[in-house]
Amino acid sequence: LVVRYSLRAVFLPTAIMATAEFDTAKAFLMQADGPANTSVYDHLSELIGKLLNEKPNNAIEILENLSYELKSNKFNATSTLHEQPEASESVLLAKSQERLLKYETEVPEEDEDSEQLVPNVPDLARHFEDADIGLGREETFRVFLALKQLTEDQPLKNVTFWGKIFGLETNYLVAEAEFREGEEPQPEEADDADDDLANDNDEDDELDPQDKLPESKFKPEPVIPSEDYGNGCNKKVYFVCSEAGQAWTMLPNTTPKLIATARQVRKLFTGRLDATVASYPPFPGTEADLLRAQIARITAGTHVSPLGLFTFDEEEDDEDEDARDNFILAEEFEGKPLPELLEPDLSGWVHHAQYILPQGRCKWINPSINDDNVEDEDEDEEEDEDDEVEAESGPPLLTPLQNDEDVDGYPAWSPRLTNTSHTAYASVCLSSNRWPGAHAFAVNKQFANVYIGWGQKYSPEPYSPPLPPAVQMEYGGEDVEEATDPTRQEEEEFEAQQAEGDEDDEDDEEED
After folding, report:
1. What residues contact residue 259 under an 8 Å CB cut-off, 6+ apart?
2. What is the pLDDT of residues 202-220, one digit of tens each?
3. How high is the pLDDT of residue 322?
4. What pLDDT digit, counting tens, does each position of 118-148 carry?
5. Do residues 322 and 375 touch, judged by C-beta distance below 8 A?
6. 311-350 residues labelled b (16+ CB within 10 A) or e (exposed)
7. pLDDT number for residue 194
8. What is the dihedral of CA 35, 41, 46, 49, to 10 degrees?
9. What is residue 118's three-state secondary structure?
10. Gap between the Cα atoms of 135 and 413, Å rounded
11. What is the band of 5 on the pLDDT scale with cuts at 50, 70, 90?
12. What is the Cα–Cα distance from 213 to 43, expressed in whole angstroms?
């Protein structure tokens, strides 16, 4: 039983304090405050009641502890409720994939003229699965649904699953697509760095000839223009995401400089598109640019198809330079027998992606020509300038794989059957030894390419960064004169002569 005593009887004798002052003081002490929402009046009443009930021997020593115990036992609704934890990554991923699994109850009517934007990825993956290649049926189906979602968000003509590139933190799912005509992405406008440089040169011309800096005779290498969308390395556009169901991010077009630098470095991906690429030579871009350059290299070297499946359009003019840059599906192709696809010389397979020249483009351009209207120049002038720079050339489109160079003494490709027990249900799978992780299969009229790997080219030797360039010679132009530094004795003699000259000047002023 807790006895409640009035503070009036203990602290505030009525004979000393007036009734009005007592009521004012009591009202102040009864104001609720603090996280426990209690008043000083109630707290002291409970504290004194606890002391009188328990009557401890050392009351003065435990007074503070009893006060703290009473305050800590007070219920506080705001302090005892835990904050709601943030949703985990798995929950957020499940919510993003939830919309992929929603379906319409009404079956849409089939239109004969409608094109199939997304191929049957699960069916294609079944052939790779027979060769122990793939992502698993569940992830493959999610990727298939994510590709369908991509066609609803973007104005695409077609889209297919390119592959998966592993990263140290997260992975990249890559989709290869083409935009509908008239919906192509617009190129970014170039910066005005050249204009600023020209303005700086104009300011230097206005300076005094004595203040001008020596003019450098160094001529930087000309910037090789990149290929437009729909041509060469930028023939198609690529979208990436970490998991099926997340938002797709379109990668920028690649440039010859990015491809040339990517050939000289070896860098594992982190999984973050905005990550910086620390390498030597310095990579001129972020991980998104490096990823796009590696995709272009892998596509050019590993996208293959059975011989005869594609052919050039006979209606196009053979003299046209772009006539051999595109191909069409051969209507008369009925598929190649499996033994022909299994030939060791790989004569039954061809490359259907353009070869990337050492310049970093699929179609060579003269770097010494800087005029924007190159196409309007006379052919004679072009031939004279081409003689100064040796033109680069590579294997043409639809070149058989038997012309591929060996990889460390082994063939560039390894063919095998996906089912050796029953060949009626088998297909031929082709694996690249130059780009580990690149595979292709073919059976009848059906074929597909996929890449699942780290995005690195095979190298028989450990990677070693290239050496830095040689140190340049010291500038020794005619406008620079060198003089020998004076000794300390010569400096003292010069200072003494100056001091004598100053004294003579002072004497002349005094005489005046």
Report:
1. 233, 293, 296, 297, 356, 360
2. 555 566 666 677 777 778 8
3. 60
4. 999 999 999 999 999 999 999 999 999 999 9
5. no
6. ebeeeeeeeeeeeebebeeeeeeebbebeebeeeebebbb
7. 46
8. 170
9. coil
10. 22
11. very low
12. 84
Distance CA 108, CA 453 (A): 38
Beta-bridge partner residues of 286: 276
pLDDT at position 248 is 94
Query: Residue 452 CB: number of other CB atoms within 10 A?
Result: 17
Closest CA to 475 of 218, 290, 221, 267: 218
Q: CA neighbours within 13 Å on the CB side: how many for 250?
A: 18
Residue 494's contacts (CB-CB under 8 Å, 6 or more residues apart) are 486
Residue 413 CA: distances (Å) to CA of 298, 346, 439, 445: 14, 8, 9, 21
Two tokens at 486?
């004076």
Helix (H, G, I), strand (E, B) or coil at 121: helix
Where do runs of H (alpha helix) occur along 55-120?
63-72, 77-80, 89-98
DSSP code, position 156: E
- Please give the helix or strand (H or E) that residue 150 lies within, else none: helix 137-153
- In 3-state terms, what secondary structure has residue 244? strand
261, burial (CB in 10 Å: exposed 0-12, middle 13-18, buried 19+): buried
Which two three-digit tokens encode residue 454?
């780290």
**Does position 383 have pLDDT exceeding 80, yes or no?**
no
432 contact partners, CB below 8 Å, separation of at least 6: 301, 302, 412, 413, 438, 439
0.85 exceeded by pTM: no
Structure tokens at 344: 């060791």
Range in 193-202, 276-285, 300-309 with the lowest mean pLDDT:
193-202
Tokens of 491: 């400096």
Alpha-carbon gap, residue 264 to 277, rounded angstroms: 13
Give the range among 4-13, 205-214, 441-450 with minimum mean pLDDT: 4-13
Of the segments 4-13, 212-221, 400-409, which one has the largest average pLDDT value?
Answer: 400-409
What torsion, rounded to 10 degrees, do the Cα atoms 274, 277, 278, 281 define? -150
Write out the H or E segment, with its range, that includes residue 153.
Answer: helix 137-153
Residue 244, strand partner residues? 246
| Residues in CB range of 134: below 8 A, 6 or more apart | 125, 128, 140, 452
